[in-house]
Amino acid sequence: MTPDFFYGTAWKEERTAELTLLALRSGFRAIDTANQRRHYFEAGVGEALATALKEGIVTRDDLFIQTKFTSPAAQDHRLPFDAFAPVARQVNQSLTSSLKHLGVDVIDSFILHGPSSGYGWSEEDAATWRAMCAERDAGRTRLLGVSNISLDQLKALEAAGGERPAFVQNRCYARFGWDREVRAYCRRHNIVYQGFSILTANASVVRGPLVSAIAQRHKATNAQIIFRFMAGIGIVPLTGTSDAEHMRQDLAAKQFKLTAADLKALEALTS
Ligand SMILES: NC(=O)c1ccc[n+]([C@@H]2O[C@H](COP(=O)([O-])OP(=O)(O)OC[C@H]3O[C@@H](n4cnc5c(N)ncnc54)[C@H](OP(=O)(O)O)[C@@H]3O)[C@@H](O)[C@H]2O)c1
Predict the structure, then answer these.
(1) Which of 41, 61, 103, 206 could be a cystine partner for 16, CB 3.0 to 4.6 Å?
(2) pTM check: above 0.85
(3) Where along the chain do its domains lie?
């Protein structure tokens, strides 16, 4: 399936399985996780997937399962790979562990959690990306993506001869035009842009007068208008809500139709 809304599983700890299962029961079909025990409990996601498959809530074909390779610098002591192995081996070990956690032979999307630094595309990044491409070629993931990446880094990846990703997953700030430059690059190259921290990084915009007026007009919540707006400008959003009613509302945001003028005004909001 093609994902149009991700349920994000970060920071749920011992509630990961319960909340992921609730999200699946609520209708989410695309699930985002990471093999980074510091912020995610990937095995809990696997537990929820196993229950949902066993109970017939979903079939494997209904699902879009996405996880990440997180480099040692962004991990705590609970590494899913050998800290002293070369990066290609670490990527291989991390994905092997993810497949085991998630109870599948192949995932739909494997994301590089972030380049090794906020600037540039290092030889280490290039080697990690090559290793991820090799895993895709070996059939262990269908697609690849990169996260927490700037426009300069995307260009550097390309300049280094790297294959362009299928996905970019970035934090999306209204004050930066909702990541305008990266989104424009993605559009030019048929890369699907996934946005996270949409509500939390833009609290004043979400509560602000423009979003409130549009929400009132549609008898919607402000969060629904924001999620609908994301779809309207080509962003596939992530939500990590722990609340059943918010899950329902977030998915129901699809039903609203925003006008071209609404989309334009929302896209121009900066704070
Ligand atoms: N690639 C990366 O580096 C990266 C970084 C951060 C996150 N992510 C991914 O993105 C996912 C989402 O993270 P996030 O940073 O966007 O924040 P989030 O975890 O989705 O947090 C959303 C917050 O907004 C609140 N909220 C209020 N009304 C809501 C509504 N109607 N719908 C949804 N939430 C509502 C939620 O509270 P309630 O629980 O009460 O609804 C929650 O506290 C993560 O789980 C993870 O998968 C990726």
Answers:
(1) 41
(2) yes
(3) 6-171
